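re the bet — no i am not wrong, look at it urself. input seq straight from the record:
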Amino acid sequence: MAKLAYLLDLPVLAELTRPNGNRRVFTLFEQRQALCAIAAPASYALLRGLELMHDGERRQQLQAFATELLASGPTTLPFDGESALWLARNERERARRGWSSLDGQLAAIAATHELALVTRSASAFAGLAGLRVEDWFRP
């Protein structure tokens, strides 16, 4: 198994569900899928969003995507004690930057596993010691 290198945030996962989504995101995911992980809090947010959707074709499509992603897609990493400690130590920075709880958890998981956080909002995370970020939406 290849060493993990990337943690995908929720907007990246959402982009992968769009039939006409960003081709660069699709291509990079296809090339690097074995190196990618998702965070348990992002999985929860994705599944929660599905549960709140009205029944219909789009929900069925997204449900199939989520089922496949969680069954055979990237490794899912937990928000564990080390992540909690990292986030607590960076709480002032989280608040200053206006990160949501989910953003903070994703940053903590990425930092403690030495992964690049792949996000559409790279500037919101840039410059924080111990956290690498990448934006696959832009060249």
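see?? The first strand starts at residue 6 and ends at 8. told u. also The first helix runs from residue 10 to 16. so pay up
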